[in-house]
């Protein structure tokens, strides 16, 4: 089967690109070896950043310049005014809150956060503060950065492009034919549920598999070592908690970032990132949870944590390798032969990466097989499911009123 583009990896970057290519008229297919969004996308907090954390030092950094237009692009897509149409994506909140702890460094960070953003924080009066932040010292501001459910976003695009997304067996069911390093002429697929193999003959191959890109590059005859991993150790809390989305600022860092959702049992779940998750990489689960409990007592005075259960999960941020392992300022790609390796760097930059890829991938010409014909041939092929949010897959939950006691997830 002839294809214009075959995409490996069904996270935010791959699905957004699939939508762009399909609307352009390309015969595009996406291959996913696990679950859609498994790893980075579904583990992300869903904040559509506009560069806040990159301006805390009072400078409009290159990273802030690159990302500051993203919230408006997403906002238009979520409202159905721009493609991809994401009206069925669940928006957890239309905005985030920004507050500080009672330190001089924290006060300076709040000042820096007002520099150069398209979406600048708006200070709130005491009466307009959410109840969860009523006891916080100093300024509380509202930032018009939407927060989405990553799992809902994945399901939205997967539903729109169901016919173009295939589940694959990465260990035994994928074999690439190369005419030269980085020049893929055929992708041969087999699957236990399918009686016959499938051969795809792509004009272009795009790797958007996050942490899986390194291994895929080797399969394409390309050198490994072009990727870096920056780990996080995230914290989860569930129980009688208020819904809250925002950042506690402490100097030139986000001391902690909170986003909220509900689990399948209807409980409020907090996802906790920021500096807490960066520093938590070197901690074991129990030590990090005690640290998180102490942090929240400090940054959210007045919140009752006595009936809250806690858990953690680890995730790697896979990115193109950069000097000294620092975070890239923007989405990145490497084009070699007919293979392009791509990393969005952040969820919010998925539209930017898709635009970069569309500009470097030649448009389809002289098509001998229509998209409808392709869909008919693939009708019986297995489709991947959307990955569960991290709180649904967490197994051990700890009550810190009984230190060290483990509870299995209900």
How does this structure look, described?
There is one protein chain. The protein is an alpha+beta fold and 410 residues long. It has a domain at 93-146 and 231-317 and 390-408: D-Amino Acid Oxidase, Chain A, domain 2. Helices cover 25% and strands 28% of the residues. The chain has 12 helices and 20 strands. It has helices spanning 12-24, 40-43, 62-67, 70-78, 104-112, 150-160, 213-219, 275-279, 285-299, 350-360, 371-377, 390-393; strands at 2-8, 28-32, 91-93, 96-100, 122-123, 140-143, 147-148, 165-167, 174-180, 183-189, 198-207, 227-239, 246-249, 254-262, 268-273, 309-320, 332-336, 339-343, 396-399, 406-408. The protein has a 10-stranded mixed β-sheet with strand order 5-6-4-13-14-15-12-16-19-20. Strands 1, 2, 8, 9, 10, 11, 17 and 18 form an 8-stranded mixed β-sheet that branches. Strands 3-7 form a two-stranded antiparallel sheet. Strand 17 (332-336) and strand 18 form a beta hairpin. Helix 1 runs parallel beside helix 6 (150-160). Residues 104-109 have low confidence and may be disordered.
